[in-house]
Amino acid sequence: MTDTSPNRPAKRGRPGYDLESLLAVAVKLFNERGYDGTSMEDLSRKLGITKSAIYHHVPSKQELLRLAVNRALDGLFAEVDKLDTVEGRAIDRLEHLVRGSVAVLADQLPFVTLLLRVRGNTKVERDALARRREFDHIVTDLAGKAIADGDLRADVDPATAARLLFGMVNSLIEWYRPRGGLRAPELADMVATVAFDGLRVRPEA
Amino acid sequence: MTDTSPNRPAKRGRPGYDLESLLAVAVKLFNERGYDGTSMEDLSRKLGITKSAIYHHVPSKQELLRLAVNRALDGLFAEVDKLDTVEGRAIDRLEHLVRGSVAVLADQLPFVTLLLRVRGNTKVERDALARRREFDHIVTDLAGKAIADGDLRADVDPATAARLLFGMVNSLIEWYRPRGGLRAPELADMVATVAFDGLRVRPEA
DNA sequence: TTAATAACCGTCCATTCGGTCAGTTAGCAA
DNA sequence: TTGCTAACTGACCGAATGGACGGTTATTAA
């Protein structure tokens, strides 16, 4: 989807990585080995340039992390903003948010993956966690309204419903790979179906 | 549940940590900061002993990880073994496994948490991932049989069903804390209900 | 009182870590 | 051909890392 290869045509200056192409490689490596488990040496080796060359593009290792997680968060909050245009009951808006989140997850998989693994060791990580909590709060509110509407099971409290729902959504990062046969819309269908209607086949009336 | 405090009564030798109590602190810290993000210095400070004292109990940092993830895996496979005694259809056995896994997760939360975050950087981690895949394979087989029985939706393939199901189960480590009001059996009920019957309220016939 | 046991300390080490800095090189436009 | 821009190199640094090692201290059983 995004061109991440070095030496792409028609640019000023010496060809090579720019911030974008470098970030793509970095995030991929962070996801493979973990952020703390990846040294700048490791990254430079993977890039095929020296460690100091990385610092031409980015002032610190943490900045790479910051750029990545914010990209994921911006994508997710863009889906939240889209909800304003969605008419209908809370459960429908909730389903929209689920589908939107699956779409962001599929489209920005490496960034979302990194986001969901952040632990809170540094300020960058804590800021990311704060924005994640903000997102979770929005989901919980929607679940609460859907329960009040009588559309979502009342034997599960809103916070738990939100957590189970997005627990399932977020678990996609563990196995979904866009290159496989399954496309994002079909994936979103599956998740929405299973989450809202369950895995069990119900005897028809 | 398990006594993890140092200086418990009636033991030989100088009182202090033994492997068990040390491991508990280590795993907790690993979960807070990440395995790679936790140095042996960090751990020694948390323990209140010197770094070298740790190496009296354990030969390496990786050994701590190995002990922890194997404890989690042993718990999960014990639940698999229990399935032999369960009569009934595949979907019932699958539900048993879900409930059993939730129980293990709740009882051995720190160990399971650490297990689910392993990336595969070292041999210890790769071995853990291999055992996890073995577990996943068992779940997928069960899902396949349940679909063949006509009990699980046929519009989701077995592997995806297994992944969504245990994606939801495993996401519990992100928020479930045993000290809260919710007990493990009630938690298992909720997860099983939501996963198999969905979050949506269905109009009664 | 004396072993045996088991936890612990202080010091040290080679390596790796994230990061700095002064210079170099490759392509483009004028 | 000359600037200009932007990517890159190599040598270096102080701090932190996982771990080794020889000696010490607190407790219980005989």
UniProtKB/TrEMBL annotation, chains A, B:
Domain called HTH tetR-type: residue spans: 16-76
Q: Indicate whether DNA-binding appears among the record's keywords.
A: yes
Q: Which domain of life is it from?
A: Bacteria
One function term, GO molecular function aspect? transcription cis-regulatory region binding
Note the coiled coil stretches, chain numbering.
none
Gene3D superfamilies in the record = Homeodomain-like, Tetracycline Repressor, domain 2
- Regions recorded as binding DNA: 39-58
Q: Kindly state which keywords UniProt assigns to this record, in alphabetical order.
A: DNA-binding, Transcription, Transcription regulation
| InterPro entries given in the database record | Homeodomain-like_sf, HTH-type_TetR-like_transc_reg, HTH_TetR, KstR2_TetR_C, Tet_transcr_reg_TetR-rel_C_sf
Q: What is this protein called?
A: TetR family transcriptional regulator
Species of provenance: Prauserella flavalba
